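Supplementary notes for students who missed Thursday's class. We covered one full example, reproduced here. Read the sequence, then the structure, then the short commentary at the end.
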Amino acid sequence: MAYFEGIEMTGGYGNGPDIISSCTVNVNKGEIVSILGPNGAGKSTAMKAMLGLLNLKSGSVMIDGKDISKLSPQDRVKEGISFVPQSKNVFAGMTVEENLEMGAFLIEEDLKNIIEEIYNLFPILKEKRNQLVGELSGGQRQQVALGRALMIKPSVLMLDEPTAGVSPIVMDELFAHIVKVKKTNVAILMVEQNAKQALSISDRGYVLVTGENRYSGTGKELLNDPRVRSSFLGG
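Structure (token representation):
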């Protein structure tokens, strides 16, 4: 049994049609798993279902052997799940350090030590600790968003398009940081448009098409699968 898993999930928004259908995704601690697929494939929907932002018609969500399918998003966060949305994921009018402190709403211990751990992971943030986040580059803002999500010491980190809108150089840098986070034994589940780059750092991946699992395997297997290459990786 995987540490964090969505099993046979089917559901959509409100009374609309199903966006995901019998979709299964899982990730273990110390592992990066990417969810890939064309636009509208249900990638972000699958992630939101696991976070509790979508009511499932059927299927279940488990963490560490515990069924959390009926828990609210807030209660799932208390179970150790942290989520970084694609946009509006930082407070631009606050400093770097204030943003990190805002992420620690569940923490009762001394914040100084946790903030130092974040600065060790993301050294540029220490340098910019008193700067307004709105003045930072896109890549630095994403590091703030990652750092803030890690303030609750989650066991699961969910990332929705972490490299959206950044340059290729910044993308490589962000992926390097995500690998550093993985080494702290966090389970990382990531929706990503940059499929090739995402698979190159992923232990495993899932390719969704119209809300269903189409292909799955190790990052390497998917990179080398001719069907995946021709359909999703540009040849």
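Commentary. The first helix runs from residue 43 to 51. The radius of gyration is 17 Å. If anything here is unclear, bring it to office hours.
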